[in-house]
Design brief:
With 174 residues, the protein is mainly alpha-helical. It has one domain. The chain is 63% helix and 0% strand. It is built from 8 helices and no strands. Helix 3 packs antiparallel against helix 4, helix 3 crosses helix 7 and helix 4 packs across helix 6. The chain is globular.
């Protein structure tokens, strides 16, 4: 029987724990810190917190899972994803994963730490940050879904002289 999905608070706690592991030497301890450092304005963060947190965490976890699966070995990726609850389920105990893989819980811990260490490269941390910002902008309605690389253009910038500030979130046109 599959474990029930995590509540939002638990999901956020596990994501924050993941960030603390990937960004140990920086002042990123929470998801909001990561978004601010990536360039998301307070408006984007506030809209996500108030209206779209569930959708944001779901999409972010999916995109991070895809990224992690693409850069780590299958076993490392599975262990990191499951131990940090990026699959939306409660993280399994080290012993449970060890039994599943036929290895000791200490070896699972070593594989988890090795996987996280591989995600600490500057390039991979920047990719995780870019994904977080793109998903934030998509969920907050600033980008069409799936627009890669355009997140920087949609982050809060002062309007050009003479033009009214854009509505937030953008209003559909008839």
């Amino acid at each position: 029987m599959a474990a029930p999905p995590l509540d939002l608070r638990s999901q956020l706690e596990h994501i924050n724990r993941f960030l603390a592991g990937v960004y140990p030497d920086q002042e990123i301890r929470r998801l909001s810190d990561l978004l601010r450092q990536a360039g998301a304005g307070d408006t984007v963060i506030a809209v996500i917190r108030r209206q779209h947190l569930s959708a944001y965490l779901s999409r972010l976890s999916q995109r991070w899972r895809d990224f992690i699966a693409g850069v780590l070995s299958e076993r490392h990726a599975d262990i990191v994803i499951r131990r940090y609850a990026l699959d939306g389920r409660p993280p399994p105990r080290l012993a449970d994963l060890g039994a599943e893989y036929g290895i000791s819980r200490e070896r699972v811990r070593q594989l988890e730490q090795a996987g996280v260490k591989r995600l600490r490269s500057r390039k991979r941390r920047q990719a995780l940050q870019r994904i977080a910002l793109e998903v934030a902008c998509e969920v907050a309605g600033l980008l069409p879904e799936g627009t890669p690389g355009a997140a920087g253009a949609a982050v809060e910038r002062p309007p050009s002289a003479g033009s009214p500030p854009p509505a937030f979130p953008p209003q559909p046109t008839a």
